[in-house]
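Why does residue order matter? Because the sequence determines the fold. Keep that principle in mind as you read this record.
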Amino acid sequence: MSLIVDKLKPICELIALRSYAIPNEQAVIQSIVLPILGHLGWNFLNALEVHPQYSTNRGGAGTGRVDFALRIIKDETNMDEPPFVFIEVKNLGGLNEEAEKQVFDYAYGVGVPLLVLTDGDIWSFYNPQAAGKFADRKIEEISLRRAYNQADIDKAANTLQKFLSKSSMIHLISYRRFIQDEYDKAMKQRILLEIWSDFVSAKDQEFLEFVRQKIRRRTGLSDDDVPIDWIANSVREITGKNIVPPTQAIATPRAASSPSLPSPVAPSAPTSPQQRGFYFMGTFHPASSLGDLLVKVLSEIERNKPGFLERFYGSSENRGNKRTYLGKKPEELLSEEYRQRYPDWKKRVGYDELIDPTGSKWYVMTHVSTQAAKELCRKFCKVAGLPWENKEAGIYVVV
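Structure:
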């Protein structure tokens, strides 16, 4: 795995920082697709193995030429070796429903086990044998542009290796079975998420009744003391803000006849489960916590404005009364006085690591209030020269 990980990192950086160098579909093929296939064991100089402009004309439906067909050539005199994978390539940012329809049209009646649709950044993997809408047949999807750190790169490399390594395609039947297994897992996860979405949006009456029974058993309250509306509002509030589970959030009453329940609070906009996050130049980026938000905002600015982290690090905006917000060492985040007063300061104060595209490590103060996080993002914008609270041209924070 280490080889593909090492080779994938510069490709991720190319897409994130130098997308202007990938102006068209052929550039995506030359700079991204073929190098990745090469790192996965394919000889792209062998046009029988990595077959360009593979004709899917079998008479009737399914006609056309897909950009690449991956085949295991056991006998070069046999031109009818079946393809394992179809890969359709589009311009960077050129993926849409029409592109999906096109690649599925190519696969119609051919029996290829896997379809891949990519613009170099987004890689979508589909099971063409499955039923339903195109989106329902998607097994997995990765973004190389958004491989912010080593963990993201490892995950992307693992997905590419899993689906596209030549070594995984020794036998067509076993590979087809593998793709079906991966699709089945993805389908179950998708259904589970849909069910959970109904739960957290309080649409599922059975779920609400289940929660009420749990509360009644643990607290001794009657059904009348635990209104369904209160449960629904509480679930929305709790899941929307990523705080403790419902059973931990409920206060134990002083007496069963006079419960003390928290007042229901309506969810804040946006109303999707991924409420916290930020808009950067028109794109919304979800964040799981305030710390995650700060790290992602810094990462996104650095990717679009290389050198920003160094500039902010040296600016007066990086200095508070007793602490620093961005450092090259954890010790830089707090004053010497504080560190001497509290020898266990690392356990008291939260900070996260950030790896920039050059591999340099930074430390971000994440033990901040909501208001402080917003103020920090405003400072980031000021140093970066971006408009504050502007969804389309700058940064707009949703906390």
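The first strand starts at residue 50 and ends at 55.
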